[in-house]
């Protein structure tokens, strides 16, 4: 803001800028104005005060009226003056410490200067080597491209393989999974076929056995013993349960899977897995690529050599090494000049230190009068003595206090002038220079970026790299190389026919729902074991004899039928049921997706693509690395930033801050001189020997009119 205001010519001053400047400087102007008023008014007030006292006014008359609370007033003024004196002493100590700190820190600046010079020399020496390293790394990128061109077959073939994995392999995986599904389908159908034979054979034997046992049990119940009145109800109950001895499932109606199984066996004679793998692994990618790209090798290699020559020529275009060598010589000369100036700096700093101490001595002189006045006045004060009979020591204390008042008037305006000047100069220096340095508004290099970052507007490295490293001619050569794979067969005709034969094998027409429905039924109409238990219970209700034994014999026969015929059938059903359900689900899923998978594989065509784009990545990586190195690693601005930091430390932290502390302490002393003057004048009245006095405090009569003043006794000193 200040710079913009200064740069404006008188004919083009903008009032808005001036308003901002006035608002910015309002605090400084206000404080400076107060200081100037103090400087101007203090001598005037001192002169008026002196003339007023000479005329026996303003406390100049050596007369004191005694009051009852005189001791309280004296004690208050004494305590106030002591407190003021203590604060002034603290201000003197603060100012002296700041003054001494300036000298100490100036002596420490030599180490910072040596460190900065060493860093700048390192900066100048390392930058040429860094630039040479950048240009030399193009050879690395070029050699990598050459190596890839020499091995174009395996490398580009590998990239084609990766490309096919992303787009074709999912379809081939579908074919491989379908080949596994074919084998699982065959196993499931074989299980169904064998289980069906077992069930059909076993259910026939079971039906015959149950019919025979039902007839035998019916004959037993026809025995005359069952006509007995007590036995007849039991026999009738058993006779009513005879129809339950029958089979529940009819496995003869289950569909035959033999035809579908035969078709599956025919399909599996061809190994679909090997056919699918051949679609990806049997192609000679290296030979295909070499044949398609050989014609451009010579042109690319020649163009790469030309680009390398242009980069080397560009690095020699700018005399960086010579310029930095001159910069190093300049640093050495400046360093020697600064070192030769050290004695003069020390001498000037000594004079400055003496001047500041002399300024502080004026305040120390006033403090000495105040302290001596307080000591003499307090020690020599006698409560029994009247104002006209006070002792010499007390009178001396009052005179010393008045002497301090006189010196306060003499020096305070000059001290305030010094404080105001230092405040105006160091305060604006702090705002305009130190704060921008502290928050990096002037030089933002805290993260140690390269110097090129701040010179990019002068030379754009991006346009040069885009024009040379990877130009349009080289891009055209790379784009002209094409590898067309549309004629490559991924799945042979035998594999496609195999898939279609599997789809037409008839597995989709099998009624698996009817099979599962029949298998889920129980083998018999009733649980034979429960039937046997009920039969034995009924037999136990009969009288002991042949009929009871015959019924229990039938129960034993039925248990034998259950153990030897029903249990094997149930085990066969348990084994067959999950296999059939699982196979049905898989077959349904494969039948649903079969034609879609076949269509994807048989109609898949790899589109044309430009497989030389990966070579462009080497150049892009090199150019990106060059840009990153120029902005963050080459000619790092940390040494320059350190130099600015050192300027901020020496000029602001060491000097400006200490100067601010000095004027703060000195200004505080100047402000405190005002209450010191007031309290000293008030307190001196209680220590000095008066010429006249009043005996009464609040008389209703004017003693000065009715009685003559008491005169002081003759001095004994």
From TrEMBL:
It is a multi-pass membrane protein. GO terms for molecular function: cholesterol binding. Keywords: Glycoprotein, Membrane, Transmembrane, Transmembrane helix. The keyword Membrane applies. Pfam families: Prominin (PF05478). The keyword Glycoprotein applies. It is found in: Cell projection, Microvillus membrane. PANTHER family: PROMININ PROM PROTEIN, PROMININ-1 ISOFORM X1. Belongs to the prominin family. This is Prominin 1 b.
